[in-house]
Amino acid sequence: MIILYRIYQILIFCPLIVASTIITAIFTVIGSALGAGQWWGYYPEVLWGRIFCWLAFVRVTASGHENIDKDTSYVFVANHQGAYDIFSLFGYLGHNFRWMMKESLRRIPFVGWGCKASGQIFVDNSSVSATRRTMQEAEKQLSGGMSLVVFPEGARTWDGKMRKFKKGAYMLAVEFNMPVVPVTIDGAFDVLPRFRLLPRPGHIRLTIHKPIPPTPGGHDLNTLMEESRKAIASAMPHD
C-alpha cells in the first residue's frame, strides 16, 4: 500500500501540485496587476491550499469561525508544525489575510512573484529604514477587514512541540492596536514535518480562538504573548 501511495505521489500528486502552483501564481499576478489584488491575492489561494490537502488525502476541520468577523482586521498567530500549516490556513481559515514572511521567499519562482504581486508582507530587518518600510507596507495592507497571519515561532518545529515565541511577530498588533487571534494547528506535524519531503494522509484540526482585544492603553507585549501562547496550547493534545 505504501509503495502504491509513493507511486501516486510521484506520478500524479507532484505534477498536479506543481501545475496548480504555477497556474495560481499566474492568475494572482495578472489579477493583481488589473487592480483586484485583494480578491486575487486570497481566493485563488484558498482553492490552491485545498487542492494540496485533497491530493494528499489530508482532511482539515476548522472550528471557531464564530469568533471572528469578516470585516475586522486581525493579527492571527499560529503554531508552526509543518508545511501543511500554510495550505490548511489558506484553505480553511475563512478570513481574507496576508502573510508576514521571510524576505528570502520573494526569490522563489512563481510563488515569490505571486506573493509580491498580491501584497504579502516581506519582513526585511536588514536596517532601520528597511524595517520602517516593512511597517509602512503592513499599515497599507491591514485595512478594510484585511488581516495578517504570523507564525511567532519563526520556523517549523523539529519535534511537534511549540518553540519559543518571538516578540517581532506581535509588533504590528502592538503598533497598530489590533486584536490578536490565536490559532491552534494540530496534526500538520504528522502530515509533513520539516524533515520529510512528501506528505502522508492525515487529519489537521484548526482551532480559532477568541480574539485578544487591545486594552484602552494598548497591548502589553509580554501579556499578549503569554495569553496567545496559552490559548494555542489549550487546544493541543496533552500526553
From TrEMBL:
Keywords: Acyltransferase, Lipid biosynthesis, Lipid metabolism, Membrane, Phospholipid biosynthesis, Phospholipid metabolism, Transferase, Transmembrane, Transmembrane helix. It catalyses: a 1-acyl-sn-glycero-3-phosphate + an acyl-CoA = a 1,2-diacyl-sn-glycero-3-phosphate + CoA. It comes from the Bacteria. GO terms for molecular function: 1-acylglycerol-3-phosphate O-acyltransferase activity. One of its GO terms (cellular component) is membrane. GO terms for biological process: phosphatidic acid biosynthetic process. Pathway: Phospholipid metabolism; CDP-diacylglycerol biosynthesis; CDP-diacylglycerol from sn-glycerol 3-phosphate: step 2/3; Lipid metabolism. Its EC number is 2.3.1.51. It holds the Pfam family Acyltransferase. The chain crosses the membrane at residues 7-34. The HXXXXD motif is essential for acyltransferase activity and may constitute the binding site for the phosphate moiety of the glycerol-3-phosphate. This is 1-acyl-sn-glycerol-3-phosphate acyltransferase. It comes from Duncaniella freteri.
